[in-house]
Amino acid sequence: MILHLKENITEEHFQTLAKSSEGVGYIKDGKTVLILSSKVKTVPESLTSYVDEYFVTDSDIQLASKTYTPEKRSIKIGSETIGGSTNHTMMMAGPCSIESWEQISQVAEFLKPLGIKTLRAGSFKPRTSPYTFQGLGEEGLRLLGKVREQYGFNIITEVKDSSHVQLVIDHADIVQIGTKAMYDQSILKACSISNKPVLLKRGFGTTLQEFVQAAEFILSGGNENVILCERGIRTFENKTRFTLDLAGVAYLKEFTNLPVVVDPSHAMGYRYGVPDLTRAAVAMGVDGLLIEMHPAPEKAKSDSAQQLNFDEFKSMYQSLQPIAAAVGKKIV
């Protein structure tokens, strides 16, 4: 149950009410929101005098539910907007990892003329093996800041653990929480007290319920700027890296009020299949795409098999425009 409380409640009083009712919530922009378990179906008597309005939900997908907010949330990213009533599909493209200024400036020089405004690249890389490239860390963030300053891109980059959440928040326009960090409540809660847009990736063994409930940790702290990203789940199939769950994308679009992004690169794991999956995602009218590309994929320090080269990316990008137009969208 979601409760909108009266405006004259102080922070101290609010915290007392939250504790006594076993709820969580926030006071922000003149709005006081208290969230109780979805098992609660009637307003507790102890809270009745403080409530302006309330919303009953079927599960602990609450703030993200269309039962609460029927309209899709609109999230401002630099001069661009994702979600809401916009007809845009935001392209977020770049290498898996930032490796050097030479590499990332080549990517920027390539993407800029295409009209793409959001560049992705990882500085902190949560790798499966401890013996592989772990990213440039703070130096990578500084280089991404230089890319923003010189080329005007919005930057999306990943947070790996709670020790550097604030550092990424300070440097990025969108904070990416990856599949391995999706359950890390210290990261989720740190992002919840910021207004910085957060792109939350679905864990590869995570149900849709669990996925959106992870988003609820961020939303319930007062950060309304959450984007969901489907990046493939682990199934019995071993010919692809993961299985892109477009059925899950349909569910998220239908029942949640959050913008939905698709990452075909990690789902497929091999560059030959990325363009087809990307076109399928565009045909579904998704709000954004997360695509890996690299000046020389065969030399990439991480995920080389799934990154497109410049020619492959350009060919795919051009093929997306008529598909987007057919479903009333525009690639930005």
CATH topology (level 3) name of the largest domain = TIM Barrel
The shape, in one word, is globular
Q: CATH H level of the largest domain: which superfamily? A: Aldolase class I
Low-confidence sequence ranges: none
* Estimated share of beta-strand residues: 15-25%
Number of strands: 15
Any descriptors?
single chain, 332 residues, alpha/beta, TIM Barrel, 2 domains, 8-stranded parallel beta barrel, 4-stranded antiparallel sheet, 10 helices, 31% helix
Topology (elements, then pairings):
Elements: E1 2-5, H1 11-20, E2 24-28, E3 31-35, E4 51-55, E5 74-77, E6 80-83, E7 88-94, H2 101-111, E8 118-120, H3 138-151, E9 154-159, H4 165-171, E10 174-177, H5 185-192, E11 198-201, H6 208-219, E12 226-230, H7 246-255, E13 260-262, H8 264-268, H9 274-283, E14 288-292, H10 310-326, E15 330-331
Parallel strand pairs: 7-8, 7-14, 7-15, 8-9, 9-10, 10-11, 11-12, 12-13, 13-14
Antiparallel strand pairs: 1-3, 1-4, 2-3, 5-6
Helix pairs in contact: 2-3, 5-6, 9-10
In words, what does this structure look like?
The protein has 10 helices and 15 strands. It has 332 residues and is α/β, with parallel strands linked by helices. The chain folds into 2 domains: 2-55; 74-331, Aldolase class I (TIM Barrel, Alpha-Beta Barrel). The strands form 3 sheets. It has an 8-stranded parallel barrel with strand order 7-8-9-10-11-12-13-14, surrounded by 7 helices. Helix 5 links the parallel strand 10 (174-177) and strand 11 (198-201). Helix 9 packs parallel to helix 10. The longest helix has 17 residues, at 310-326. The two termini are 37 Å apart. The model has no long low-confidence stretch (mean pLDDT 95).
